[in-house]
Amino acid sequence: MGKLELTNFFAAAALLASISTPAMAQSEALQMIVTGDVALESTSGKAVNVGLAEAEKAAFNNAWIVIKRHPEVGLKVRNLTLEQNGAVVQGLKQRCAPPTMITYVVDKKLKRLSARYRIDCNLPDVLVEVDGVIRASAPAQNLGSRPKIAAFFIVKEIETTTSFDPNIDRSARATARAGVSQSDKSSASYQSDTRSRSAVREGYGETAGSVTDTYSARDQEKGKVSASSTSSSQVSATEEATFKAQGRTVVRAADIKYRSASPEAINSNLTDVFKNASVRIFHYADISSDCPGPNPDTVAKEYGSKAEDLSSPVRTGIQKALANCQFKYMLLGDATVDTGQLDSVTGTPKVSVVLRTKIWSIGDGFPEVLATVERTASASNPDLGMARSAAMFQAAQRVGEEVLSRLTAEGVR
Known about the structure:
Elements: H1 2-18, E1 29-39, H2 45-67, H3 71-77, H4 82-95, E2 100-107, E3 112-122, H5 123-137, E4 148-164, E5 168-205, E6 210-247, E7 253-261, H6 264-276, E8 280-283, H7 284-287, H8 296-303, H9 312-324, E9 329-342, E10 349-361, E11 368-380, H10 384-409
Parallel strand pairs: 4-8, 4-9
Antiparallel strand pairs: 1-3, 2-3, 4-7, 5-6, 9-10, 10-11
């Protein structure tokens, strides 16, 4: 058994590595490698062939052990009986792909055969099989003994969405500058120079018998006039604007505004699901006059236009009102509807719905959350109204089916 348990451990690790989040269950593949270990009557070829057939059955049993560790499955099947687990395994043989044997080993001394198989299943098929087994085990009930449940849903329709990246730092700067400068310069100069020189020389010489008389005069007048004028003027204007964005995109955030919408589509589709399962469902808006509590229209209008959940006083008031009317279980949830999308292939209007609810036990003592269920759905159609109706129908069907399975797993019959 040590080898078998080790193989299952690695199968569980492979399973967890190959799955995505529960919200993506519609397209989730489960891939497992498990071992089937059986005893042989002998080591002959015929006995080995028989042993391989038995090993395949044992491998499916071990695959079911691994699948039950998935969070979408574990909460549903924790109270299954041995016979119910066997019924699920038989159903998986039909719903999962045929197993592929990887290898097998025959221990001739101990007369045992150990074979390794790869088994591929689809999570939605597994959930359908589990729901079918659980539903088939519920005993028939008359009208008086049929369980009843109350429900209150708020529908929030996205009005506008503004997306931004919170990881980018943005800054902006603007500068405006204007300047005027003017200068004037003038200069003038005058320079004059007047010079006069004269010389007289007279000489008499008796010896030579000569008379010398010399006279010279020199007059000089010099003048210079200069003037200059400089004028300059300069006007300049500068305007500068810069925008800077830097950062790394990791996630995108959105500022979403909602408007309240009617929950009638959700209520009617849930009623069909529960009626087919012989469960009576009562909508809080229809019985609030007989079970006094917070006004359903006021609550729907107030909380349908904002992202917050119901406040504690409002939620407690609804629970007390329904408990006073002898309800033991209630669904309290909301739907977010996005009608502003386009189909990436056809370009037609696309509507997405996220429907979530909590299953409350309110009959005994303090209110208790038994389970939380969330499902998504989308539909596209040239007619926006048709796309919206189809998406709401799918979301309500999926949530209703899951709620019934969770209630059955809790022992509600």
